[in-house]
Every structure is written in C-alpha cells, then in structure tokens.
Amino acid sequence: MEFSELIHKRKMTRAFLRDSIPDAVLGRVLDQARRVPTAGNSQGFDFVVLEGDQTSSYWDVTLPKDRRATFRWPNLLDAPVIITVWANPGAYLERYSRSDKRATGLGQGIDMWGTPYWLVDSSFAAMVLQLAAINEGLGVLFFGMFEKASKVAEELGVPAGHLPVGTIALGWPDPSGERPGRSAAEARRPTEGGLDAVVHRGRW
Ligand SMILES: Cc1cc2nc3c(=O)[nH]c(=O)nc-3n(C[C@H](O)[C@H](O)[C@H](O)COP(=O)(O)O)c2cc1C
C-alpha cells in the first residue's frame, strides 16, 4: 500500500472476525514495530502478545462477564490478538547513567526528565505497530487499560517498574459488526482556516 493511502485509510476498528492472524503476518507487524527510533537507543518498550484463547485472560480482568451483555462493542472481544504495550523507564535511567550520557543528569531519576521519553518511544512503537498491521489488511484498536492496568500487569506477569501504555486489538475487520467510537463525531482539526490552525509557522 502507498504510504499516503495508508495514512488516509487509517482508522480504528472495533469489530473483528475470529479468524486467526498467520504467524508470518503477526511476526512482520511486531518486527516493524520494534524498529522505531528511541532516545539514546534505549529501546525501553515491551509487547505482551495474547493469541486466540489467551485473549480471554485480558478480557476477564478488564471486562467482567456480567458487563459484556451491555458492552457497546461486543465484536471487539472477537479480536484474535491482543497486544499490551509497556514502557520501561529503568532502561532510560540505565542508558543515561553511562559515561557518554552521564553529563545530562537524566540517569539520576525520572523526575529529571521534562519529557518522559519511555512513553514517547513506546507510543512510536504502538503507532508503527498499528500502521504495519493496517498495511497487512488487518484492523486495529488502540485503547486504554485505565484503572485496570495494575490488574492486567499482574495477570500477564509484567515485571515491576514497567508502565502501561495501552492495548492494541488486532484482527481481520468485520464491517457488519462495526459501531462507531464515542468520539467519532468529533471533527478533525482544523475545521476552518486550513492547516495553519494546527501548524504555527515561525512562531505560535
Ligand atoms: C491514546 C488513545 C487512547 C484511546 N482510547 C480509546 C478507548 O479507550 N476506547 C476507544 O473506543 N477508542 C480509543 N481510542 C481511539 C480514538 O477514539 C480514535 O483514535 C479517535 O476517535 C479518532 O478516530 P480514528 O482513529 O478512527 O480516526 C484511543 C486512541 C488513542 C490515540
């Protein structure tokens, strides 16, 4: 797919077929996602991948069975793959404590960081993962773990110190079950004034 077509086609999918994703396809998607740039080449992100029946361990924690009958996107639970993304601040503190980076002071603690690059880099990886998946003809939904994040971490055996970034459901789209997200009616900026409503040239 042409890159500009991919960008313009990209949208979230909330209804999936149960059909599995071939190993080779999922492998390509994950491999492309891990190639993102990271601060100091720290590479402080991890994916926990659940396939097939394993996905129920995610849903059992985040969406108890008694709430499923009224859940707005029932076919989201059919997604054959669930990937949770985790950021690792410790990798950045370790990297920026080394001799070539020590003068930055950023190895001293996460409070030293004006921008938490572990979240930036993990988000880059999550975005590339989504684009790579769409490029394969898959649909994706990125969504939050919100207040369930610590329970998900415990269920999935995520080591202490790794921060939740979000969850990506992947699968073959089922347009017949699709229902719009709650924010679908929000207009994309800019609604008037052209690109300059978002882009500040020379000075804000
Ligand atoms: C950080 C982030 C969190 C999101 N959380 C949710 C969510 O919890 N539930 C949901 O249905 N969609 C979620 N979305 C999807 C957005 O609602 C969606 O991207 C936005 O409305 C624009 O629609 P589009 O991506 O289809 O163009 C999230 C997207 C992002 C980037």
Structure write-up:
- This protein has 204 residues and is an alpha+beta fold.
- The protein has a single domain (3-181), classed as NADH Oxidase.
- The protein has helices spanning 3-9, 23-33, 55-62, 65-68, 89-95, 117-135, 149-156; strands at 45-51, 81-87, 139-143, 163-171.
- It has a four-stranded antiparallel sheet, with helices on both faces.
- It is globular.
- The two termini are 35 Å apart.
- 28% of the residues are buried.
- The model has no long low-confidence stretch (mean pLDDT 96).
- The chain binds flavin mononucleotide.
- Residues 11-12, 142-144, 166, 181, 183 line the site of flavin mononucleotide.
Short description:
By secondary structure, this protein is an alpha+beta fold. Helices cover 31% and strands 14% of the residues.
The ordered string of helix (H) and strand (E) elements is HHEHHEHHEHE
The third-level CATH topology is: NADH Oxidase
- Taking the alpha carbons of the first and last residues, their distance comes to 35 Å
Portion in helices: 25-40%
CATH structural architecture:
3-Layer(aba) Sandwich
Low-confidence stretches: none
Structural class: alpha+beta
Globally, the shape reads globular
What is the domain tally? 1
CATH homologous superfamily? NADH Oxidase
Strand line-up across the major sheet:
1-2-4-3
Assembly form of the protein: single chain
The largest sheet, given as strand count, sense and whether it forms a barrel, is: 4 strands, antiparallel
Give average pLDDT, whole number.
96
**Please, how many helices?**
7
Q: Give the C-level CATH assignment.
A: Alpha Beta
Radius of gyration: 19 Å
Number of strands: 4
